[in-house]
Amino acid sequence: MVGATEQVRESWAALKDVFRNRSLRRINLALAGSLVGDSAQFVAFAVLAYDIGGAAMVGAFSVVRYLVAAILGPFVAVLADRFDRRRVMIAADGLRALLTGAAAALVFAG
């Protein structure tokens, strides 16, 4: 049985190997940026939903958000299989940024 210290050492070694590879480093950093953006977007919309309708609105927003993801997921997966995955990821994040900017403009406009 491998001890906890050995597991941590192996994890650090694997992480170092990933970040030595330029392509893996870039995709992992892009994924981290995407996840941070997704989390920030969710928090911003949850705060807005709470201001509009309280906890029930936050729950409704969350359900709609995940239903849309569940419905669109298979179709986007087909796109990722047919096109360059890097371009699909860039397009998806760009579209999300554009839509988030449009939503922010609507909020600030009242």
Structure overview:
It is built from three helices and no strands. It has 110 residues and is mostly helical. Helix 2 (22-82) packs across helix 3 (85-109). The protein starts with a helix and ends with a helix.
Please give the share of residues in helix. Answer: over 70%
Radius of gyration: 19 Å
Q: Count of helices?
A: 3
Specify the biggest β-sheet. Answer: none
Count of DSSP strands = 0
Straight-line N-to-C gap:
60 Å
Mean pLDDT: 88
* Oligomeric category: single chain
* Beta-strand percentage range: under 5%
Instruction: Return the structural class.
Output: mainly alpha
Categorize the overall geometry. extended
Q: Which sequence of SSEs, written as H and E, runs from N to C?
A: HHH
**Low-pLDDT ranges:** none
Please name the defining characteristics of this protein.
110 residues; mainly alpha; 3 helices; single chain; extended
Write the layout of secondary structure elements.
Blueprint: H1 4-20, H2 22-82, H3 85-109
In short:
The chain is mainly alpha-helical and 110 residues long.
